[in-house]
Amino acid sequence: MAKWLALYLFALSVLCVATSSVLVAQGVESSKSRFLLRLKEIATPPLDGRLLLMFSTDGSNEPRFQITDNFRSQQVFGIDVENWDGGEYAIDASAFGYPQRSLEEIRRGRYFVQAFFHEYETFHRSDGHIVKLPMDRGEGQVWNKAPGNRYSIPVEIEFDPHTEVRQTIVLDQVIPPIEPPADTDYIKHIRIQSELLSEFWGRPMYLGAHVLLPEGFEENPDARYPLAIFHGHFSHDFGGFRTEPPDPDLEPDYSERFRLAGYNRIIQQEAYDFYKIWTGPDFPRMLVVEIQHANPYYDDSYAVNSANIGPYGDAITYELIPEIERRFRGIGQGWARCLYGGSTGGWEALAAQVFYPDEYNACYAACPDPIDFRQYTVVNIYEDENAYFQFGPFGYVARPGRRNYLGHIDATLENMNHYELALGTKGRSGQQWDVWQAVYSPVGADGYPQPIWDKFTGKIDHEVASHWRENFDLVHIMRRDWRALGPKLAGKIHIYCGDMDNYYLNNAVYLAEEFLVTAEPPYGGEITYGDRAEHCWNGDPTQPNAISRLRYHRMFVPRFAERILKSAPEGADTTSWRY
């Protein structure tokens, strides 16, 4: 271990991380520059939250919209603040930054500078812990768009880290509230207070859903419908459904990811095409729902019971879904429910099917988040010592975080995690790696998720990893419990993934396949890969990735209708909804 640690510290020094960053982490100030941030006014002091200072070389947009987890990111520094009365708060060289670690590392030049305050709420949880977290306010846990957050108008300044600067910035802007979506003939919205979640968090907590009604819903009052549950990230309204042709005045954009001009028009056309298919004579009549479960850690809960986030699995399965079925004439039984989704939604679809095998009759999981933690993207959390680097006897290499279809990398795992660390400590960034940790980890002594690895250095905690394995490693759980689970999951598991997934999610799918194809009793499902397909490929080899990712509803609803007809119990209603 001593040899490994020496190599590790050497690697950090070579990468210019250990020197200045350790000083910053310990609060040692060497730069003469200081920014004094204050609020113009404050209605309800004091406040808790994360105070950010951002630098940008690009004046075409506000700096708050230019902070990303890859090498293209502009600069952000962050500090925690508690009991802020709105008076001056200093950000100096002791503030942790990304991509550069400290103010002293910013080159002399002209920059657009902006300050931002991400406000936290205090929760008195039922487990006895008091935590301060950013509650979702209708935006889906997007820090730079969250209503009520305060920010300053960007100003252009001349900056020299070695010249004494005392720059005062006033946060005099407030992000306004977001209007909830309105009901339409086809799309309805439901919001309920969850007793389970409210008890856990010590304050009212809500679940919601966007519900797409089948054609003929009003004209067939005696019909009872199967329920297709589309899991995925927060959306303001039901996505991929449009009752009008594409807007002729829409200015075409360019998708760098797919190398397509006018991709926004393509999205609208696909949504309109789905409306025509949905209302056509041959499409299955079902309820399709997108669940809304944004929470203090992320834009959704991962649809499982979690020590840090709460009993969302039970709340969704036993509170929200029965209420949707009650209001909109669902059949209300497990054989008449399916799960599907991509990425986060793919993991949720498989996890809900595994943890609630009798409550759902199929899962169609596309590009799921890591389902086997031996390939937690590119990290084996059980055997690797460090998440950010691989070390040899004399050399080392940084672990990649994201690639394109050619394998070109724009972010490392260290980049992505340090980006989150700048946005929030204690797993409060609202971003991807932090929410995985919040969902899977035990509660730490301070009430926040126990880290799977040191956020600064990447050193893995294998005791926490063991907890992850026994509670949330889906492949391990299936292998461990297959004698009981296998008969209940027969024919229900369907997984699709591109073999050039941008986040290396295909790696864990390979391990899932190794188990499932040899499992006894047989799993009876399918696992399919897309050649050179990137993230969100959903199993359609006839369409490019840019199109297939927009066709989840039209692809999986008919497949589930076929599944119902083959697997429904004797005497089940397989006719009233087939008009």
Please, could you describe this protein's structure?
This protein is an alpha+beta fold and 579 residues long. Helices cover 26% and strands 24% of the residues. It has 13 helices and 27 strands. It has helices spanning 2-14, 18-25, 195-201, 263-278, 312-327, 344-355, 413-423, 432-440, 462-472, 474-489, 506-516, 545-548, 552-567, and strands at residues 33-39, 47-56, 75-84, 89-91, 96-98, 109-124, 130-133, 150-151, 155-159, 165-171, 173-174, 187-193, 206-212, 227-231, 254-255, 260-261, 287-292, 305-306, 310-311, 337-342, 363-366, 389-391, 396-398, 400-403, 409-412, 493-498, 526-530. Strands 2, 3, 5, 6, 7, 8, 9 and 11 form an eight-stranded antiparallel beta sheet that branches. The chain has an eight-stranded mixed beta sheet with strand order 12-13-17-14-20-21-26-27, sandwiched between helices. Strands 4-1-10 form a three-stranded mixed beta sheet, with no helix packed on it. Helix 11 links the parallel strand 26 (493-498) and strand 27. Mean pLDDT is 93; it is low at 1-30.
